[in-house]
Amino acid sequence: MIQNYLRMAFRIFIRNKAFTAINVLGLSIGISASLIIFLIVHYEFSYDKFVSNSDQVYRVVMDLKFNGNEGHSAAVPAPLSNAIQQEVSGVEVTVPLMQFQGDATAKVSIQREKTTEPVILKKQAGIIFTNSQYFSLLPFQWLAGSPNNALKNPFTVVLTESRARQYFPSENLPDILGKEIKYNEDFTATVSGIVQDLNETTSFEAVEFISFATIAQTHLQDNFMMQVWNDWMAYSQVYVKLAPNNQAANVENQLVALFKKYNKDANKDKGNSMRFKLQLLSDLHFNKDYSGFNQRIIPKSVLYSLFAVAAFLLLLACINFINLTTANAARRAKEIGIRKTMGSSRKQLIIQFLGETFLLTSVAALISFSLAPALLTLFADFIPEGLQVQSLRQPHVFLFLFLLTLLVSFLSGLYPAFVLSGYQPIKVLKAQSLTSGNETKQVWIRKTLTVSQFAIAQIFVVATLIVSKQINYSLHTELGFNKEGIITFSLPRDTVTTHRQQLLNEINAISAVDLASTGFLAPIEEGPAFTNISFAPKPEIKDPVQIRWGDPNYIHVYKIKLLAGRNILASDSIKEFLINATYAKLLGFQNPEEAIGQPLLFGEKKVPIVGVMQDFHEQSMHASITPLILGGNNGDIFHVRLKPNISGADNWQQAIREIQKAYHQIYPCEDFGYRFVDETVANFYQTERRTARLLSWATGLSVLISCLGLLGLVMFTINTRTKEIGIRKILGASVNSIAAMLSQDFIKLVVLANILAWPIVWYGMHRWLQDFVYRIEMNWWIFVLAGVAALLLALVTVSFQAIKAALANPVDALRNE
């Protein structure tokens, strides 16, 4: 029986090669997209699932409000962890997590056996300061040392196996205990333990753990602000594990009281407040409001959008299959009638048709699985680093592919199976099946499915245009400062001041350099830098504002305009301030000139305002422009504006090589790393750019699948109207009139699809754009442009076959009938 079903299925496939190829191609596209998206989504949702009792593990975060504007922070004041251990009940484990300042890396010096000079690794990442409770929070396996006292004492460090092998490649693991490691010329720590690498999908990526008690025994006590409650760094985080049967709300209330105790200004009014909050471990990887330093965040909305893309592409493929199979039903009508006359039951026919669908879907699934490694490479921008080709060999992947094959077979094959098996033998053999009301119903179903296909494709097209337009606006709109051709780089730690000025002079002397300055952060940065400052005449006006500083050339490098007053003067400490227009208005000055000479209270010192700058964007278009001050002070970050590139020359790269040469003459043992400011701006919109690229692929695939389905329907329609076309030509119909007759019904369907799609995509894009404070308008012409493009594509698809049919010899058409 099964052999008979297979034999018949292969005969049907060979007899209808074009329809079979279209079906397999459409299903392969849908299944391939679903497989890749499943791998991505499964990987992302597997973050930190290995942590036991994860529903009791939280990160302490902060909810902030400045002048009515809400903010969030994954960083917390440094003394919080000690306060929790001493003053908060219901917490079983408290884990501080502190990283080195700057780029969170450290210069590591190691003295190995059989070497006279220490091995120096300049930028080691993955180093944190923490306590021994870190290892009770995460299930590390100990290879050497004891978890109870490994980080109990200051100046001790625990290494993962991979880091231990890197530092001491020729030593046995137990022999590494007691070895010394020097960090940043600041202190030396002794290896007190070695743990196995987690090798899990996790937000905890540290591989080197220095005892938290070390901070209090070094100058890091001041650098990390271990006694400061009204300020915090991006490198300071705290995790807690609640005691059994304890509620997060109870601990949060205690944390709120703790903040009020140590920071009197934390909640001065409804518009300005700060409070601690507990963020569940399972939320860390998905909540962009609490993005930690160098933490990779994937909002769940993005993953759900991926699910939607996969579902839509699968739906399009299933619609194709249903359309083509039911449209091709007439060719199999006599077969069905004869089989029923010979005794086949409707159940057997349904099994036969579902089996054919399952066979086609299985072939498509095999093709999709074979293409998966290449697709993982093609979509590398969307693929997490931890997701490798080896992931395809996991049992859950095969299970997913099998279940997906069953689902697609069921969705694609069920309706055609019932339609085909429902033909009545007598009517079929009398050639009445195609004139029945049931066939008319099938035509309307096919038309409805075709409209659905093109509506989905149109949604993708319009969404792609709007997302691309918003990204282009974000990248190229006027930011209030110049970002083109400017590079920034930092001096090594513990830089001598005279060396800074020497290097600045040498860089300014380079012919391809327009102007160089030293200071703090660039005008726009990925992470805000706030300071507490108040207006001296009215101390109650005390607000956190963003801070920058630099020498007098800073505003000239970035071409920041002054609205009133003058520029800051050269100084080795902050003695004057420029403020932006937003801060001037916040202080109550309607006219920028009114702010000149007014004092700000910076710490215990009164600092005058000497100028008002025009507003510029210091963050992405997602956020509003905030109050900002610029102080006159030298800094260790260089800002260099290069002269415009000359046509046919590469003077930017030449200038960078000369800057690097000057840098290495002063710091011969240090690495030189730089970045362009416009790249910083572009990095703000990585998620949106990936979304745009994903939408572009989804648009292309959806349009391809829709056109394949339309092509199949056109081919079927022409085949069923061959005799009509021949008679019309004999009676004098022109090629154009025949092509127009065959095309107009399909064009109407595409027009209807556009009309149905536009309200849906308008609503979705309107919601998406709300995430941007500064955004584009959704112009009507975007929708019209997408609609015209869809019409032209459909017209080309239909016209090609229609003209081919109209040009055919009518005698051959009538003879074939």
Automatic annotation (TrEMBL):
PANTHER family: ABC-TYPE MACROLIDE FAMILY EXPORT SYSTEM PERMEASE COMPONENT 2, MEMBRANE COMPONENT OF TRANSPORTER-RELATED. This is ABC transporter permease. Keywords: Cell membrane, Membrane, Transmembrane, Transmembrane helix. The chain crosses the membrane at residues 21-43, 302-324, 349-376, 396-423, 694-718, 746-765, 780-800. The keyword Secreted does not apply. It is a multi-pass membrane protein. Its main location: membrane. Residues 308-424, 700-806 form the ABC3 transporter permease C-terminal domain. InterPro entries: ABC3_permease_C, MacB_PCD, Macrolide_Exporter_MacB. Residues 20-257 form the MacB-like periplasmic core domain. It is found in: Cell membrane. GO terms for cellular component: plasma membrane. One of its GO terms (molecular function) is transmembrane transporter activity. It comes from the Bacteria.
